[in-house]
Amino acid sequence: xxxxxxxxxxxxxxxxxxxxxxxxxxxxxxxxxxxxxxxxxxxxxxxxxxxxxxxxxxxxxxxxxxxxxxxxxxxxxxxxxxxxxxxxxxxxxxxxxxxxxxxxxxxxxxxxxxxxxxxxxxxxxxxxxxxxxxxxxxxxxxxxxxxxxxxxxxxxxxxxxxxxxxxxxxxxxxxxxxxxxxxxxxxxxxxxxxxxxxxxxxxxxxxxxxxxxxxxxxxxxxxxxxxxxxxxxxxxxxxxxxxxxxxxxxxxxxxxxxxxxxxxxxxxxxxxxxxxxxxxxxxxxxxxxxxxxxxxxxxxxxxxxxxxxxxxxxxxxxxxxxxxxxxxxxxxxxxxxxxxxxxxxxxxxxxxxxxxxxxxxxxxxxxxxxxxxxxxxxxxxxxxxxxxxxxxxxxxxxxxxxxxxxxxxxxxxxxxxxxxxxxxxxxxxxxxxxxxxxxxxxxxxxxxxxxxxxxxxxxxxxxxxxxxxxxxxxxxxxxxxxxxxxxxxxxxxxxxxxxxxxxxxxxxxxxxxxxxxxxxxxxxxxxxxxxxxxxxxxxxxxxxxxxxxxxxxxxxxxxxxxxxxxxxxxxxxxxxxxxxxxxxxxxxxxxxxxxxxxxxxxxxxxxxxxxxxxxxxxxxxxxxxxxxxxxxxxxxxxxxxxxxxxxxxxxxxxxxxx
Length: 658
Description:
Elements: H1 2-12, E1 17-22, E2 25-30, H2 45-53, E3 60-63, H3 85-100, H4 150-156, E4 175-184, H5 192-210, E5 215-217, H6 238-241, E6 255-264, H7 269-282, E7 286-289, E8 297-304, H8 312-327, E9 333-339, E10 355-362, H9 366-376, E11 391-394, H10 402-419, E12 426-430, H11 446-451, E13 466-469, E14 477-481, H12 486-494, H13 496-504, H14 514-520, E15 524-526, E16 531-533, H15 535-545, H16 615-631, H17 650-657
Antiparallel strand pairs: 1-2, 1-3, 4-6, 4-7, 5-6, 8-10, 8-11, 9-10, 12-14, 13-14, 15-16
């Protein structure tokens, strides 16, 4: 029992360094640097040192390096386990040298799950042998090595939280700005704000149903407001709510409100729109991707001669291309069809409202974009985006000169006339074009070829004002032109494929539908007549020449324009005249036709011989006039006769009138 106890005590007091002496030279080796199985683990030091003491190398001597907390003093050691006096002397001298030398820091200890650093790995004694009572530990005279735990090591690799800005101030790649239209029900003034928040809560609930990880980010980049993660996070004050939905104002009358929202999504925005579009349409809401992904957007110009059927997406791309070509930087633009604002407060009446395309840009690009767009759409240019001739006009609120404001009002009047259905542009639809933007083998698009067609009377001007796909039905293509060339434009649309094949070859067929290609087969373009020809033309011409005379019947009045006789000509104003004093002095809008003066006459001048008015028509009109005179008891002189012949002299005609 005593030998086992002494042996265990000697094992626990093993040294941490080794001295090797070969050929009269003594070297020191740190016990932590000793390589071997388990030698780099604190709990395995005793076992490794005890094995080293049993080695067969006579030059290896174990010396005491630093006492540990588990080591005992020399007084408690058994006599047979003490080192010899000379070894103690050598150990003390070496210890003094080690204290004066620079200490070598130990390597970090990597504790393993199977052998944690706080678990003793010594083999316990057999169960039948009683263990020795614990001995009092001597105080450690050296500074203990700080132990690195897995938690501390993981924490050391974490970034500093103080250096990371709040997430609401950072713009993530997944942040997307949308324009939001909501329809709020009418409510009492006290419940107006609750009606707004309830409407927003229902919309956000659908967004979170589609994207569980979606977050509502404050609209402003410098906002300190937190992210909205659930319905309970919706603010309960209007000032806090506007951090997420700018320009939103409660109203007890309800109605449609326009605002914006910034979402951080984990799914593509088209997927979100597809998931919730049915709900938005059923409740008269709308969610639209913002054309400019910027915090503040300014309107800088509006376009004269613009209309609401222009392809906004294609025009935006073309304008941005021209801007980048001139400024050497990317400037996103937005286009909106809206009312031109006048320099008067309040709402513009509907009869005075004139709409046009407006150009929006981010505030940081305002000055450069405005100057460049005025150059692109100036009157000196003959090439514009999408080949559409338009002019950029500044806003009235940006102009301070009174004469310039009057000029802008004149331009607004021209835009109003251009928008009018009767006086303005003409629209021609076709369903034979598949795509306008595909490039042909010549390097040009179909739009380029169409807009290059010139007018017959003015070759320097384009025949069409614009050609675009309908916004919500791309199978329909709309041509617009001025009223002065409407007939020529309609003929060109009907023979468009034949004309383009004549000038650019059969490669144009790929832009048109199969029906259009079949209809154009066998036709050709006549350069002399500037029209399309096919086999039907000769057939119809032969029918008109070899017309069967015995089958020609009098034409019906209903199809007078379709008969082979010339169309009736409207009589000249002097063909039939009524004296103003026929019905007395009734000059107001509603005449009574009462007789106030006698001896008034009705005279008919001669009818031109080239007039197409028939005798039956003249008789019916005279009968109606006689009925009118009889109804109102108007006295007529007895000298009214048939119209004189053209052979009558002026003297006879004058006497007859008298």
